[in-house]
Amino acid sequence: MTPRRSVPSAGPGVGLNRRLRRWLASELVALRPVVEASARACRAEHSRKHFTSYQQVCLLLFHGLAARGSLRQSYEQFAACPGLVAASGLGVGDGTEHLGISYSQVAASNGTRPAGVLAGVVQHLIGRLQLAGVDRPGGDPLLGSLVIQDSTFLRLSLRLAGWLPPLRRPSLSGVRAQVWLHPSLDLPEVVDLTTVKLNDHLSWDRSVLGDPARLAALAGQTLVVDLGYYRHTAFRDLVAAGVHVVTRRYPSTSITVEADRPIQPPLPDLDGGRITVIADQRVTLGTPATRTGVVLPGWRMVTADVAPRLRTGHRSPTPRRYEILTDRWDLDAAEVVQVYLWRWQIELFFRWLKSHIQLPRFLGYSENAVELSVWLAILVHLLALLAARALGLPRRSPLLLARLTGALIHLDPARDADPPPAARQLPLPGFDLPPASPT
Description:
Blueprint: H1 14-41, H2 53-66, H3 71-78, H4 82-88, H5 103-112, H6 116-135, H7 141-144, E1 146-155, E2 174-182, E3 187-195, H8 200-209, H9 212-218, E4 222-224, H10 232-240, E5 244-248, E6 255-261, E7 275-285, E8 296-306, E9 320-326, H11 333-341, H12 344-355, H13 367-390, H14 398-409, H15 413-416
Parallel strand pairs: 1-4, 4-5
Antiparallel strand pairs: 1-2, 2-3, 5-9, 6-7, 7-8, 8-9
């Protein structure tokens, strides 16, 4: 059974809740032109008169934040939120808790309205958060240059999603989302959404290595990948495009040591002293006798033992041996290992999507509805980031998601709208505020 988030009640945090409602009311107003522009770009309003893209986005946002077990439950509870109904324009106007569209219309729109509507809104919010990150001073410059790539599997039934290719083991059917994560800002980018027939190698070739625009966007940054993407031809193309790489050594990779480098002592506060560098070497990857014949000279391999964190409950306290490969020579050996350890952030992000935002709750089983579900989960995550920044919180959290749900349910546009500028400041004793100039 899908767990429900509890709606926070008024109490000691009522001031924060009111600020959150005001922020959310202004965000819904600001999102309308963004949604309309995105809908025009993908012709989402073609032959539609009674259910606009903005109205659908409002309803889907409520579904994504309320975490109800089904879209029908969200549809029924949406009708009981008069402020949200008024803000979306879905009310009937007869004083009853009924919407101007039926549930069947909502479900049908999830399968027919292009998922590009939400994709455009997501790109707009990512741009806002990137600009906000540039304006914010401080932060680790090394962490800010990292892009982590990995994929997550979303299971689908072959019986319900007939567009999926058949498999010998139907229990493994589903889709795979390829994601970039910028860990310094907690910003995700969905770079590809494929069926399980297309493995990580082929998806990487299509969505990154075969896309000049994406390669250009990565130039100057460091791409951190795991063994699922290990391929010398891909590393060669990335380095040629100005992209740095950090990955683990594949066990069967042929390594020729060119030179041993002196081991520098790590900084005392680097990850709590967990990293013990064993070797720092200049190596050549591969041999001409391999199938591809690609040889990568002048790479760096750092061998280190990393002690597990005690709070993770790791079964064995024995340090784990890592062999990290990279083309970066400007970092200390311990920093190279630390960069790879930061790859774990994307695994935590996937757990956040599935456990708290509940990404596997699909809006339907058509290809468009599945893609729309992925974009909706990313959109809810970005709203949590924006809300945390607006409230001065250090990061997003499950409690903030619960507060967002309560703010959306109790939203009242007339009450929560920003007051006029003249009403925001109280006069000092003995002084009267000048009357507001007519507009």
